[in-house]
Amino acid sequence: MSTFKKNLLSVLVSITATTLLMEANAQSIAITNGKVYTMGSAGTLERATILIEGNTITAVGEDLVVPEGAEIIDADGRHVTPGLMNSYTQLALADGSAPGNGIGDQDYGASESGYGAAFDIRYGLNPRAMIIPIVRLHGITRAISAPLATHDLFAGYGAIIHLGETPPDMVVTSRVALFADFGARGAQIAGGARDAAALKITEAIQDALHFDRNRSRYERGQTRDYSLNRMDLEALVPAAKGDVIINVAANRASDMRYLIELKEQHGLNIVVRDGQEAWLMADELAAAQIPVVLNPGINVGMEFSGFHATYSNAARLHAAGVLIAFSNVSNPHPSNPEIVRQLAGLAVAHGLPWEEALRALTINPAKIWGLEESYGSLEPGKDADVVVWDGDPLELMSYPHDVFIKGQRMPDDSRQIKLRERYENLPDVSF
Predict the structure, then answer these.
(1) Which of 357, 374, 391 is the C-terminal boundary of a domain?
(2) Structure confidence by residue, pLDDT tens digits, 236-252
(3) Are residues 155 and 221 in the same domain?
(4) Residue ranges of the alpha helices (H) in 89-176?
(5) Does 3 map to a domain?
(6) How many angstroms separate the CA atoms of 293 and 151, rounded?
(7) How many domains is the chain built from?
(8) What is the CATH number of the domain that holds 143?
(9) DSSP assignment letter at 331
(10) Is pLDDT at 1 greater than 90 in this prediction?
(11) How would you label 380-412 residue by residue, b for 16+ Cβ within 10 Å and e otherwise?
């Protein structure tokens, strides 16, 4: 046998052995006897079983045979849902600090950097942020972590992260969207007027496209002057060509009318963020196929731009056919995203059907952010992000009984819980 054939045989044997070892070590889990909200074509299943192999769901149904050797988790009739997702946070970018106090990590924006669109938060993510275990305890398994606009209308690129205990693999999708500000905040950044913000956004898009068509001339110094630096131009090109989502903060109805026109004129892929007056533009947003990431707990605008905010915003948008997802956006510092369940429940209390509220935390964000093939529903072939609840997942006092992220069972503790238990168990001291 030739040396080449021997080496090839050795490689094949090694690959086969590795594959067999991985298969042997793959954890088999069966979640049985649950009321399963698949968020997929199967709908809601009573007393169903979910089979998990490794990090993947292999089967979901009411009459499944549990494989021999699988770990069985009896849901005992509890609600079982996909892992929840918060669609706008600064999770893992800010930790141990409050806004403006100068303490702790705040890696969500750099006002003095000189960069806008090129800013990329993935390099500042802290996979061991103290808040992550707390967020998991609320059934949230994935989140959008996004930059904040500081000096430029374009804040930079955000990422989809998962909240499992595998820090090196935290980022699910890098550069998932370019985040930008319009409306009152955009006007402030642009110099005080919405007209200025609109002109700056339009100019930046035109500059990026012109730069992309004339790269060689740019290198020779033969192009006109641009409004952005080289790094920002490079970063803006995919968004300007419609290949990447631009997630734009806007509250006033007229702001969203401008965004609809911007999409029509330039073929942009726009998702509205905040949208306190979006219900006034519901039909137009639906026709333009522009999703809205909103906080359904806002009924009083934080500024005049949201003067017509209402708790029924989510219900009205859904009724019009707008694809919606939830976040605690509008908070000054949304690095603590766990309250999104409470906000979803509030939307239900004001007209949104219960299952649609659950969709706004699961399959809808998966559709908006391009995760539908791997996340957002409990179906074979998708990542095993599964939550077993001790009650209604949209009730404030309900908590997960079990949380799985990519097939791994998450611990039900956090630094805060450990601290509480430490002081609960202190011996009594008599004075």
Answers:
(1) 374
(2) 999 999 999 999 999 99
(3) yes
(4) 131-136
(5) no
(6) 23
(7) 2
(8) 3.20.20.140
(9) B
(10) no
(11) eebbbbbbbbeeebbeeebbbbbbbbbbbbbee
Domain that holds residue 34: 10-83+376-431
CA-to-CA dists, residue 343 to 137, 298, 299, 394, angstroms: 16, 9, 12, 8
Residues 351-365 have pLDDT tens digits of 999 999 999 999 999
pLDDT number for residue 94: 72
Q: How far apart are CA 418 and CA 423, in angstroms?
A: 9
Contacting residues for 164 by C-beta, under 8 A, at least 6 apart: 141, 170, 405, 406, 408, 410
pLDDT at 422 > cutoff 80: no
Instruction: State the residue for tokens 């030739």.
Output: 2
Q: Are residues 147 and 255 in the same domain?
A: yes
| Alpha-carbon torsion (282, 285, 286, 287), positive or negative | positive
Closest C-alpha among 325, 320, 323 to residue 283: 320
Instruction: Please give the model's pTM, rounded to 2 decimal places.
Output: 0.88
200 within a domain of the structure (yes/no): yes
> Does residue 1 lie within any of the structural domains?
no
Residue type at 408 in one-letter notation: Q
Residues 331 and 426 reside in one and the same domain: no
